[in-house]
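Hey,

The postdoc asked me to send both predictions to you directly instead of through the lab channel. I've kept everything plain text so nothing gets mangled by the mail client. Protein one:
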Amino acid sequence: MRKGSSKKSGQSNSITSTATDLFRSASSKASLKEMERIDNLFYSYADRSSSLIDPEGIEALCSDMEIDHTDVRILMLAWKMKAEKQGYFTLEEWHQGLKALGADTISKLKKALPELEKEVRRPSSFMDFYKYAFRYCLTEEKQKSIDIESICQLLNLVLGSQFRAQVDYFIEYLKIQSDYKVINMDQWMGFYRFCNEISFPDHKNYDPELAWPLILDNFVEWMRAKQAA
């Protein structure tokens, strides 16, 4: 009785093991094919000499996805890929982003964009995306700040849909003030905190004694003077 039971148990384990091996083999083949499609898609946009998707390749990609190259979703895609250099995607970055999105064709990539947008808009992800957007625009080695004109465009692109009034007024202020020619990461992140924490447009809970960047103290003073006029 025990011997028969042991034999059956051995057969069952053997069948289970074979089924598992077959599943792993099929899964591995599917994964390899998926990576092959992701690779092929990359090389359809990459520059042959550099083996990178360059600004021209990104424009072609945007055209195929039917979005403008200035659309915030292309920045979201760069964030998902953890792209390091503005206007360029490496094969490794492409792998990381498309695999995470489950996209190995342009059609799937287009369908993944709404979900990517939802992911970025979640508070747990958005701060990381907002910080990334600033770093992505640091195009020179050892660059730590961004010129006012570029910052205004970036604010509009990244934060405009969430905090329209704050962004519009801050952009207006940045364009007329003469104290600052560039914005650094601390000021950039300070404005995001300002949008989330300070009542607008009355600024009743704004305390300049707290650790706000000086540019925001000046902005609030300018706003109050504007409102009082």
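Protein two:
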Amino acid sequence: MASGGSNISSTSHSFHLSLLTLTLLLLLLPSSSALPHTHTDNPITRFQNYLRINTAHPTPDYTSAVTFLKAQAQSIGLLHQTFEFVPGKPLLLLSWPGSNPSLPSILLNSHLDSVPAEPLKWLHPPFSAHRTPDGNIFARGAQDDKCIAMQYLEAIRNLKARGFTPTRSLHVSLVPDEEIGGFHGHARFVESKEFEELKVGFALDEGQASPGDEFRVFYADRFPWHLKIKAKGQPGHGSMMYDNSAMENLMKSVEIVSRFRESEFDVVKAGKAANSEVVSVNPVYLKAGVTSDNGFAMNVQPSEAEAGFDLRLTPTTDPEEMKRRIAAEWAPAARNMSYEIIEKGPIRDHLGRPMMTATNDSNPWWLVFKQAITSAGGKLSKPEILPSTTDARFIRHKGIPVLGFSPMRNTPILLHDHNEHLQETVYLKGIEVYESLISSLSSFTEASH
């Protein structure tokens, strides 16, 4: 106001008019608290801005995502490097050097990409990061798993603001292509000299939301096999019946596979095992028939038929025994059957052991993890095997302990679903949890490997 004082008239009338005008201008100007929510810079709006970058397959915008995350890292003083082990597939590595970098480091992993979304089936556009009045943020990737990437960074931002210095170096890897297998992302990274130089001693990767009041934690993944079973047989007129026709042989195989599926599912239904603790097998396609202008020639029996199955093996499944079952029962050559197994990654670590992280006193990292969750006011449910597959398997293959964890409780599981969303209070609580985890894990010095 002082700078405008020279413009005030010496007459009382002019003085009052100028004062009234100034008062009206001040009333019209928005205060910082009255600015629209999306115009402020805070943990929620930063999360929304990341969610608005469309990194869905088949054309994920990795360039914009890496640019955004790099800017966030620079704003809090983290070192950054970008690698392309495969052209067009950038991997961003952020680092916070510890006071004793000779100790094995901590790695926090999150993937950049997301699965596609069908906009017409969403309440709000899937890349709008729309926030409802009750605080739900709708976006593809809100749970899977852009949330943890930003929570890592926000937790580091808060720790730095409090003057915390890690003892162990801390790294955040933001990787491409997890949703399509990770083979051009984390799989290449863990085999690189750049990864070896990090000397990772313990890692965290994504988990799943918990509908209840306890946080879920995952000590292993299941392992996907894509199985194609093909049958051949006598072609002929639709009115004839042949032994060992292609469709007959394939139907027999489908029945045998279905019985195996039912036996595994019965164990789950009886409460004797979780879904992730059995081998699941689900048919995903059938391909047969002789095509015609109207669809299929109904009076022609095909000479070939094929079915595809998605198998998920547990960490303790014997892969060789599974292959023997497929060869002898599901697709026996005696019935003119053949098969192809596409193994989507390793099922044993580099020493031939099941890829599981111990969740007992034998693992000092587990004890630190548990205590950090308790210190943040949280409780853990019984450790689980993740039903699906994450990049954690590539780290476990190196013999490095990894836990899958996403701090979302009292939250519906919406990964890959329509209307994926996350409540902002849950998101903010997750930042607090990661502050506890990062400070505890990076300060822990008893474990040397």
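Summary for protein two, as requested: The radius of gyration is 28 Å.

Thanks,
C.
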